[in-house]
Amino acid sequence: MIDVENLTKRYGKTVAVDGLSFQVRPGQVTGFLGPNGAGKSTTMRMIIGLDRPTAGRATVLGRPYAAHAAPLCVLGALLEARSVHRGRSARNHLLALAQTHGIPARRVDEVLETVGLGKVAGRRAGGFSLGMGQRLGIAAALLGDPAVVMLDEPVNGLDPDGVRWIRTLLKDLAAEGRTVLVSSHLMSEMAVTAEHLVVVGRGRLLADTTVSELIASVAVSRVLVRSPDATALRDALVSTGATVTGREPGLLDVDGATPESIGELAARSGLVLHELTPRRASLEEAFMELTEGQGL
Length: 296
Ligand SMILES: Nc1ncnc2c1ncn2[C@@H]1O[C@H](COP(=O)(O)OP(=O)(O)O)[C@@H](O)[C@H]1O
Ligand SMILES: [Mg+2]
Prior knowledge:
The chain is α/β, with parallel strands linked by helices. The chain has helices spanning 40-47, 90-100, 106-114, 130-142, 160-175, 187-193, 211-216, 230-239, 259-269, 283-291; strands at 2-11, 14-24, 29-33, 55-60, 75-78, 148-152, 179-184, 196-201, 204-210, 222-226, 243-248, 251-255, 275-279. The structure holds adenosine-5'-diphosphate and magnesium ion.
């Protein structure tokens, strides 16, 4: 469990995080979503004490991160700016981390296997590709077998295989009962990875909800209508107050009417329908609506 209470961070005149409060619960993947500059990385740094809040506080399992006797065994993090000793092998990098935190050496080989770096463990980490570097960073985060895992934009720059791998790993970690917080500026990625969403913009909380609730909350839902009588149908729909746009002849995009009401109107008017398809809002559209008027 991560508990963020009224967290605020100012850098001079910039308010990076502005009175943010949310909780991250175990057993599910929570997406921390917001455009670049929204304050996600700053919030994550404050959660692990790398940045001092201007106001408010963040706790991990009920205490400030630094107050835990073995912090790596409580929360493992991959932050945006990664630090690896470039000359060391992947195994030695992890061994050094393990030794300074009282973690048994056998755990190093376990996490190397988990992230799929077992075969290249003896290679210099400095020569790793971006994807391998991410995997090594995640291995470090998992080293202490932590109850809480926090990753900052882990899919940035990864190939589709790497993206799929991270997605599965996060779901597995959550299924083991861990608390998983993962940030992203990509709504499409969060839609398939996270169950719960904490959405931020300009340092403020915009939504704290499930992915499905967020999509359902969007007022705009359209219906696609295909009809050989499109012109007459359009006039009939507009007279009921619906908004109708057409992309091509015979095809109407209807806003402000349900498929049921459109079908019944067509029947009453003796107009033929070839297609009547409800279009659910995408998470992208939900996000756009949420951030509208926020100047994001
Ligand atoms: N060390 C810093 N010094 C000054 N400004 C910073 C610093 N870190 C972040 N900021 C500013 O705080 C805001 C939030 O940044 P950040 O937390 O990195 O957002 P995100 O991770 O959501 O992209 C941005 O306007 C950024 O320029
Ligand atoms: Mg960031």
